[in-house]
Write a structure and sequence with these properties.
The complex is a heterodimer of chains A (about 725) and B (about 500).
Chain A lengths: L7 E5 L10 H16 L2 E5 L7 H10 L4 E5 L4 H8 L6 E5 L10 E6 L1 H15 L4 E6 L4 H17 L4 E6 L6 H13 L4 E5 L1 H13 L3 E6 L18 E7 L1 H13 L6 E5 L6 E3 L11 H16 L17 H6 L3 H25 L1 H9 L1 H24 L2 H14 L3 H6 L1 H25 L7 H18 L5 H30 L3 H20 L39 H18 L1 H11 L1 H6 L4 H28 L10 H11 L4 H25 L4 H15 L1 H8 L20
Helix pairs in contact in A: 1-8, 4-5, 4-9, 6-7, 11-13, 11-26, 11-27, 12-13, 13-16, 13-25, 16-20, 16-23, 16-24, 16-25, 17-18, 17-19, 17-23, 17-24, 18-19, 18-23, 20-21, 20-25, 21-23, 24-25, 25-26, 26-27
Chain B lengths: L4 E10 L2 E11 L4 E6 L5 H8 L7 E6 L2 E3 L4 H6 L2 E4 L11 H6 L5 E2 L3 E2 L1 H15 L14 H14 L4 E5 L7 H16 L3 E6 L2 H7 L2 E6 L2 E6 L6 H9 L17 E11 L5 E11 L3 E5 L6 H8 L7 E6 L2 E3 L4 H6 L2 E4 L3 H5 L6 H5 L10 E2 L2 E2 L1 H14 L16 H13 L5 E5 L7 H16 L3 E5 L3 H7 L2 E6 L2 E7 L5 H8 L6
Parallel strand pairs in B: 3-10, 3-11, 6-9, 9-10, 15-22, 15-23, 18-21, 21-22
Antiparallel strand pairs in B: 1-2, 1-4, 4-5, 7-8, 11-12, 13-14, 13-16, 16-17, 19-20, 23-24
The chains are: A alpha/beta (about 725), B alpha/beta (about 500).
Chain lengths: ~725, ~500
């Protein structure tokens, strides 16, 4: 690029002037400095109207310039189009990311998020009323980056401060800027940051006039908006979040002269002093020294990478904390789940009415009477149902009052009995649901949770009654571990067969279920190896109290809720942690989502199938151990729980996410507990709950039904979740 | 007379993209109209609208001057519009006749299939258009080129007179392409109108009567082969001048990195796919393997990367021999692998960009410590890589399934090229990519070579092999026909070797 004659640089403004305080001015200043130092000749054209811009660019090229510098925020695409025809000329575009791959178009981009972050940090330290305002121009990436950076910087130094954001949708309309500032100050903000071009200048001038602290953006507004401090309100200008366009252009031009400019983008951030805060100027006396120190710390933090703005290149929020996850969650699918439950209850109500002979009789007398009785029947049934699931609110409040005034908890405990019963019923569902969900994550359909539950129960009851003389602190974990190990080994048989021979786990786990039932038949039959001596029923001996899972409320043993619930919550956390935070989980998920790519990346598919099956089986075994050690304390032969199949529904309902499974399990616990009371009080057959469960699952598995019923538009489909893979080697 | 087909102002938006933006297109009777554009330019969307798979947000379609609504492929077929998909829609275990009559079965007495009548019509059609095919052959036994003929016969059997062909040459040998072109010519001569979708410039110049170029969902222009040049078309396609050749310095080969000796590999069905192959690749050179797809290249690469155990022979990487290795062992020896099918083998599509960038390094420092992922490091490095390799993605947490093909490939390239590697095995690294991405990936490969990495490039695109390689090995039916220095090899010579014809 260097040539014997003088290196010629063309500069074309984008419609602005080289003395208007816009980027044109700063870019030109940077260019001038480079030109003076290196003896370059500069061809300047100030564009009068946008229509001439393209011709002006061509003109400087035809005048023989080697390098063309221009502000590209709005004109970048045009320049790129022209650039395609002049591969020998290099183009430098301020504030623009080139779209195409080319070696002779260089975009200069700025870390607005870092500048905004610094401004936000300062605002957070300076606000007294804990309310801060942001005025944005048009919602484009650079402005968005200012805004997000500001927001995060503010939160960094002042958690309590409130941020009010206004977009004017204009960079030029001064009136809109003033109006925005008035509105913000009216709402009590005492620091206003504006990133809205000339419109933003007007905003901070207006806000300063109302006595608020103001912070400018892009350039030092002391010089521009406040005319070197001459304009009124200059003393209210704290600083400006500056993009050092002059410096960026200066460096880019030097690189070009040396033939080192390679195209792509050059990024200017706090590391290379490409962005930063302008001097405090007149506000200098008002900024306390601890605030200055803190700001310097933040600058250092950003430089070293210790502090991050958490703003992406397009101004998106990289906030990765739980709350952001939740808010970024697919609320529509949550709505579908909620509506599925609601619709199931409505359909269930029809069934309840239809099952009631009194309703039929009433209908014979007339439709009105029939509907009345039907309504009463439904209210009675669902009343009992909710009381059975959550308890009677009046009794709970009474119980609470008695407990507070006398310290007697008996009434309260009796009142919350239904709730504890729901939680107790939910506990094994949590374990079993997690088991199936973890399998799904690895592409495995573990339909054998029932059998693993069984084996887990057998193993834990054996350790529970046969190992004697241990303190509970050893005996209980040992019995639990036996349950986990039993389920894990049992399930890994199916995993091993799949990994080795490709035999499908659905078939094998079903077969293993049958084997486990017959194994229990044999072990528990009267006179069998695990039978209770001298008993005529096929049951195991009672386990020792040292293997009991402790009760939640030891002073009211009628409440059967035990500490297994805590264990289950721990399991939810553990499965979450394992799946999403560890290398083991990474492998399991990769194998589940795409076994071929996982294998290509060096992950052993077979090993992970066996491992995932084992963990899945361990969780199902833990469900069995919970029911033995926490509820029954012995093992009856007919131990069928139905968890095996319900757990599949739980995993589907919870979208194979541990937290989803937890919520689904709680739902099932409430349904079961409520159904029991509904049968007792309203004589509604308990099977109605099976119908409700089935309906919920159908609606969730076929969301189209719900979308059709409630006219929800289908979302764009994300990547499909793979639940299971076919027969054969993977 | 009105045109056979006219599209007016067709617009179709998907979330975040305007796939088609007020597209106008006319197709005359007996015309071969090429629709040219990069991947993602909106060609396939437009044709799917025409075939009733999508409904347009705006715009009108006229068939023979009459305004029509096409709501399903059934409607399209009824209007005489037929489509040959890129991936054939044939049932392999059925015969040609059965495949052709599928869906429009002719019957005797309303119950029994009348295969004989169908076969008769198929013979008529094949005679009429020079589409040679045996109606009783099982489709799975037919070569790809013939299967494509079956697809065309299917359309003619359904009396389609507007034929849409979506990238029909992607799977064909040069000779098969020649034959296909003859067929297309003869169809056009008999009054059929053809829309020919492609991104290959040479084909367009050879076959089209008119060419419409799409870019970013818009019609850039319509022209004819006599009025334009390949260079012009290329710049219309991408919106700028394109380097059609790769600039690279002569190779400076160093030590031998990969040695393959008498390698024999079986394919999935247990048939020999690689039959006694020997070659070596040295540091700082690109060995290209040319050949029509399906001549053992896939199995060869799988054997070299430890994904498939060879039957016999030896492979040495940096002097270390292995016959049957775990893929991880190979990766850890400093071998980078850009797999042939990026979506099936290279990426976990439902994983975010960041996780795909560490798909084979997630377990080592600094990405994991004692089995726990270092999320912050993974994300920070991912942000750097995304910037360095210019991966265009809304965020590094976006699942790669939402990225364009070129950016998906850049994710793989970023992952493989940022490890310390000594050998790069790249299988069809630019398959299905737009010109901009192809240029980018070629440049990266040459950079790696210049850094002293050995490169094994496998590609059925002869242009790609010829422009990137320092030496070219031609594979045919599992054997290497010859290894030629790239500078002296001519296209014709390699083409003959690809077809199994050895020089005397």
């Amino acid at each position: 690029m260097q040539s014997p004659e003088r290196f010629r640089v063309g500069f074309v403004t984008d419609g602005g002037r080289i003395d208007d305080g816009s980027f044109n001015q700063y870019a030109y200043e940077g260019l001038t400095r480079a030109a003076q130092e290196r003896g370059l000749s500069v061809d300047l054209i100030q564009t009068e109207s946008p229509a001439e811009y393209e011709a002006n660019i061509r003109r400087v090229i035809e005048q023989g310039c080697h390098l063309v510098v221009t502000v590209g925020s709005t004109t970048g695409a045009t320049v790129e189009r022209i650039a395609a025809r002049y591969p020998a000329v290099h183009f430098v575009l301020v504030d623009y990311t080139p779209m195409e791959e080319s070696r002779h178009v260089t975009g200069l981009v700025f870390a607005e998020d870092e500048a905004g972050f610094l401004a936000g940090a300062l605002a957070g330290l300076m606000t007294v009323q804990e309310t801060v305002g942001f005025v944005g121009g048009v919602d484009v990436p650079p402005v968005r980056k200012f805004q997000r950076g500001f927001e995060h910087g503010l939160a960094f130094t002042n958690r309590r401060a409130k941020l009010i954001t206004v977009y004017t949708n204009s960079f030029t309309d001064l009136r809109k800027g003033e109006a925005a500032a008035e509105e913000l100050v009216g709402q009590g903000t005492d620091v206003v940051f504006a990133a809205a071009g000339a419109c933003g200048g007007a905003a901070i001038r207006a806000a300063a006039g109302k006595g608020a602290w103001v912070i400018g953006s892009d350039a030092d507004h002391w010089v521009t908006t406040f005319q070197n401090g001459q304009a009124p309100g200059a003393d209210r200008l704290l600083t400006s979040a500056v993009k050092r366009v002059d410096r960026a252009v200066y460096e880019a031009v030097l690189l070009a002269v040396e033939g080192k400019l390679r195209g792509g983008t050059l990024r200017f951030d706090v590391h290379n002093d490409g962005i930063g805060l302008a001097p405090y100027h007149a506000a200098d006396v008002a900024v306390p020294s601890e605030v200055r120190g803190k700001i310097l710390e933040v600058v250092d933090g950003l430089r070293s990478g210790r502090i991050r703005t958490r703003v992406g290149p397009m101004g998106e929020d990289l906030e990765r904390r739980l709350w952001a996850r939740i808010t970024a969650w697919n609320w529509q699918s949550a709505a579908v789940i909620f509506l599925a439950i609601f619709t199931a209850l409505v359909v269930g109500a029809i069934f309840i009415a239809a099952f009631d002979p009194k309703v039929w009789e009433a209908f014979r007398e007339g439709v009105g009477a029939g509907l009345l009785v039907a309504g009463a029947s439904i209210v009675k049934a669902y009343g009992a149902f909710f009381e059975g699931a959550f308890g009677n609110p009046v009794r709970i409040i009474n119980g609470l009052q008695v407990y507070i005034s006398t310290g007697d908890s008996a009434r309260l405990l009796r009142a919350i009995y239904p709730l504890t019963e729901s939680l107790r019923l939910a506990t094994p569902y949590i374990f079993a649901g997690l088991a199936v969900a973890l399998g799904f994550r690895c592409g495995l359909f573990n339909i054998g949770a029932e059998g693993q539950y069984f084996i887990g129960g057998l193993a834990s009851v054996f350790v529970g009654y046969s190992v004697k003389g241990l303190p509970w602190i050893i005996h209980l974990p040992l019995a639990l571990a036996a349950g986990i190990l039993g389920g894990a080994l049992w399930a890994s048989i199916a995993g091993f067969l799949k990994a080795r021979t490709g035999a499908h786990e659905v078939i094998n786990t079903i077969m293993l279920n049958y084997i486990s039932y017959r194994l229990a038949d044999y072990l528990l039959q009267v006179g069998g190896p695990m039978a209770r001596p001298g008993d005529s029923r096929p049951v195991s001996p009672e386990i020792l109290p040292s293997a009991y899972l402790p009760q939640f409320f030891p002073n009211d043993l009628s409440i059967r809720l035990n500490t297994g619930l805590i264990l289950a919550l721990f399991a939810v956390w553990f499965v979450y942690w394992l799946l999403f935070k560890t290398t083991v989980g990474f492998e399991i998920r990769a194998v589940g989502a795409n076994p071929r790519a996982a294998r290509t990346a060096g992950i052993s598919v077979g090993r992970n199938i066996v491992l995932a099956m084992a963990i899945s089986g361990g969780l199902a075994g833990l469900a069995g151990a919970h029911d033995i050690l926490g509820v029954l304390h012995f093992m009856p032969n007919a131990f069928f729980s139905g968890y095996g199949f319900d757990s599949i529904a739980l995993a589907l309902l919870g979208r194979s996410h541990p937290v989803g499974v937890l919520l689904a399990a709680l739902l099932f616990g409430f349904l079961r507990a409520g159904a029991q009371r509904m049968q007792g009080v309203a004589q509604v057959p308990i099977d109605i709950i099976s119908i409700l469960q089935a309906l919920i699952i159908i609606f969730i598995a076929a969301p189209e039904i719900i979308r059709l019923l409630y006219r929800i538009r289908a979302p764009k489909e994300a990547a499909e979740m793979v639940y299971t893979r076919g027969w054969g080697r993977v | 007379m009105p045109p056979v087909l006219e599209l007016r102002g067709i617009t179709k938006a998907f979330p975040g993209v305007l796939a088609n933006d007020h597209i106008n297109l006319t197709l005359e009777e007996g015309e071969i109209h090429a629709l040219l554009g990069e991947n993602g330019a909106g060609k396939t969307t437009l044709m799917n609208i025409l075939y009733g798979l999508y409904s347009p947000d705006e715009g009108e379609i006229f068939v023979r001057g009459r305004r029509v609504e096409i709501r399903s492929p059934g409607d399209a077929i009824a209007l005489g519009i037929g489509m040959v998909h890129q991936h054939f829609m044939l049932v392999p275990v059925l015969t040609v006749t059965e495949n052709v009559m599928l869906g429009v079965e002719s019957t005797r007495n309303g119950i029994f299939l009348n295969r004989a009548a169908a076969a008769r019509r198929i013979r008529e059609i094949s005679r009429q258009h020079g589409l040679e095919v045996d109606p009783d052959a099982l489709v799975k036994t037919l070569p790809v080129g013939v299967q494509q003929r079956v697809e065309i016969i299917k359309l003619l059997y359904r009396q389609a007179d507007i034929l849409i062909m979506d990238e029909p040459t992607a799977v064909l040998t040069p000779q098969e392409v020649e034959e296909l072109f003859k067929v297309i010519r003869s169809l056009a001569d008999q009054g059929k109108s053809i829309i020919f979708i492609t991104h290959k410039l040479k084909e367009v110049m050879a076959i089209a009567d008119r060419i419409t170029v799409l870019r970013n969902g818009r019609v850039v222009g319509t022209t004819t082969p006599s009025q334009t040049t390949e260079e012009q078309l290329a710049s219309m396609m991408v919106g700028r001048e394109v380097l059609l050749r790769v600039n690279k310095a002569p190779a400076r080969p160093g030590e031998t990195v990969l040695e393959v000796e008498n390698l024999e590999v079986l394919d999935d069905r247990g048939n020999p796919a690689v039959r006694g192959v020997s070659f070596e690749v040295r540091a700082g050179e690109v060995l290209g393997i040319a050949g029509v797809q399906g001549n053992g290249q896939t199995e060869l690469v799988e054997a070299l990367t430890g994904l498939r155990a060879p039957l016999a022979g030896r492979v040495r990487i940096l002097g270390k021999e292995f016959t049957s290795a775990h893929p991880r062992w190979v990766l850890e020896r400093g071998v980078a692998h850009v797999p042939e099918d990026r979506q099936k083998d290279g990426l976990v599509l439902s994983f975010p960009v960041a996780e795909n960038l560490v798909l084979n390094t997630y377990y080592i420092s600094p990405f994991a410590r004692r089995g726990v992922l270092e999320q912050e490091v993974i994300l920070t490095v991912a942000e750097q890589r995304a910037r360095e390799f210019d991966i265009r993605t809304p965020s590094i947490l976006t699942p790669v399934v939402n990225l364009s093909g070129g950016n998906q490939q850049k994710v793989i390239v970023a992952r493989e090229f940022s490890r310390p590697i000594r050998l790069l095995i790249a299988s069809q690294p630019t398959r299905g990519l737009d010109v901009g991405s192809i240029e980018y990936i070629h440049r990266r490969i040459v950079e790696k070579r210049d850094e002293g990495c050995a490169v094994l490039l496998v590609s059925p695109e002869l242009d790609e092999v010829m422009s990137l390689s320092d030496r070219i090995a031609v594979m045919y039916e599992g054997q290497i026909m010859d290894i030629l220095p790239a500078g002296r090899a001519t296209k014709e010579e390699i083409g003959l070797l690809m077809a199994g014809v050895r020089r005397e």
